[in-house]
Amino acid sequence: MKNYLSFGAGVNSTALMLYLLDKGVGFESVFVNHGTDYPETYEYVQYLKDNGYRITVIKPNFEGFDNLYEYCRARKFLPSLQKRWCTYRFKLKPIRDYVERPCTMFIGISFDEKDRAKPKKHYYKKSNSIRVEYPLIDAQITREDCKKIILSHGLKVPPKSGCWICPAQTHRQIIQLYVHHPDLFQKVVDLEKIRGNRHTLKEKPFTYYVPWKTLPLLEGNNHE
């Protein structure tokens, strides 16, 4: 039975990849390029590949779209914090469709975040042939331990992974997106406008923490 690592190029999944290699466990790392990870994440995937680590990069295909942003723009709606359809359709389903079953899927959740492990099983409940395991939790490896594992291999610690389109971002993350990636920030603004125009005034017009009308006020300020 083949082993796979659901690889997100963040601290936990990178440390898990290294941990499994150190243990001599055979597996395939699979990264889904859905087009809306931060540029730094894509750079880190290439950085690892340049350093000799094997990572399979796949693309989603949902209703003919391989890019989450383009899908949202075409459908004129946003990712949902409640239903998390974006995670399923553009991250988990592509991996589920890619793997050879039966198999084991390694998920990079650290010991101090173990409460996050339970919901993950939900996404694979329709695939009983995929067994989900959490090696970092089993070994009681914390997020700080993960950083130490990465550094011990002579690698730089990756930035926090996540989507720049995600409405779950904090106020600070939205501002950082505005400061460091204004082009991507503008895409969020454009999408927010399209979504807002489809709803009545009785509904919440904006999902993101910084309403697009107030964003010009941030111009010229230092938000590091």
Describe this protein's structure.
By secondary structure, the chain is α/β, with parallel strands linked by helices. It folds into 2 domains: 2-152, HUPs (Rossmann fold, 3-Layer(aba) Sandwich), CATH 3.40.50.620; 171-218, no CATH class. Helices cover 42% and strands 10% of the residues. The protein is built from 9 helices and 5 strands, in the order E-H-E-H-E-H-H-E-H-E-H-H-H-H. It has helices spanning 11-22, 39-50, 68-75, 85-98, 117-123, 135-138, 143-152, 171-180, 182-197; strands at 2-6, 28-32, 55-58, 103-107, 130-133. The protein has a 5-stranded parallel sheet, with helices on both faces. Strand 4, helix 5 and strand 5 (130-133) form a beta-alpha-beta unit. Helix 1 (11-22) crosses helix 7 (143-152) and helix 8 packs across helix 9. It is globular and about 50 Å long. The termini are far apart.
Give the amount of beta strand, in percent: 5-15%
- The shape, in one word, is globular
Uncertain runs with pLDDT below 50, 5 residues or more? 199-205, 209-214, 219-224
Summed up, the helix count is 9
- The largest beta-sheet arranges its strands as 3-2-1-4-5
Mean pLDDT: 86
SSE order, as H and E? EHEHEHHEHEHHHH
Radius of gyration: 19 Å
State the total count of DSSP E strands.
5
In CATH, the homologous superfamily of the largest domain goes by the name: HUPs
In short:
The chain is α/β, with parallel strands linked by helices. The chain is 42% helix and 10% strand. The radius of gyration is 19 Å and the shape is globular.
Task: Write a concise keyword list for the protein shown above.
224 residues, five-stranded parallel sheet, 5 strands, alpha/beta, 2 domains, globular, Rossmann fold, single chain, 9 helices
